[in-house]
Amino acid sequence: IKVGTDMSEESVGTNAIGTALYENCSLQLSGKEHYINIYQRWTCSAAVIHDDSGNIIGCLNLTGKSYSKHLHTLGLVVAAVKSIENQLKVLKTQYELYNAYKYLNKVMDSINSGIFAADTNGVIKAINKSLCKMLCVEEEKIINNSSEIILKNWKHILEELKEENSYESKE
After folding, report:
1. Rounded distance, CA 15 to CA 33, Å?
2. pLDDT digits (tens, 9 = 90+) for 80-102
């Protein structure tokens, strides 16, 4: 089936794709369950693909000869659709994280003071343009390197930060 093909019941009679989309469910049709004779030689297993808001965005169909139908084929199609839906969620999350990263960099670059962000291991994850200018370094050469490049006493600073975050009193 080609992209843009109309598999509605009005166009081709009862079929797995059209019925799955209309009923918003997964199903398998085989042989004479298809309305049109030419499709009766097939078994079709279809599952509807949803976006993260629950809207129908497509349908996955697996078609084979009706004499070799297998009940697990529908399960395979449903599992593949779940995998597609999960991948769409991952891509959306990656896109949101990328936008948050770009926003963080815009905010950091809008500050005239030199700033860098590091993880708890002291690996530099972001640095603003002001600090790059002050240190006469290129961002690409600093990112993902140790904070000790910029602050020789980074380990001491990290230990102090860890102590300040503890709930023990320093009195």
Report:
1. 8
2. 999 999 999 999 999 999 999 89
How far apart (Å, rounded) are the C-alpha atoms in residues 24 and 30? 19
Contact yes or no for 108/126 (Cβ under 8 A): yes
Q: Check if the beta carbon of residue 1 is closer than 8 Å to that of residue 7.
A: yes
| Alpha helices, H only, the chain | 9-12, 16-23, 72-109, 129-135, 139-142, 154-164
Three-class SS of residue 93?
helix
pLDDT at 58 over 90: yes
* Phi-psi map region of 34: left, alpha, beta (phi>0 left; psi -120 to 50 alpha): beta
pTM tops 0.70, yes or no? no
- The tens digit of pLDDT for each residue in 60-80 reads 999 889 888 887 999 999 999
Reduce the DSSP state of residue 41 to 3 states and report it: helix
Tokens describing residue 109:
């670059």
> In whole angstroms, what is the distance from residue 42 CA to residue 91 CA?
34
Q: Which two tokens stand for residue 44?
A: 């079709």
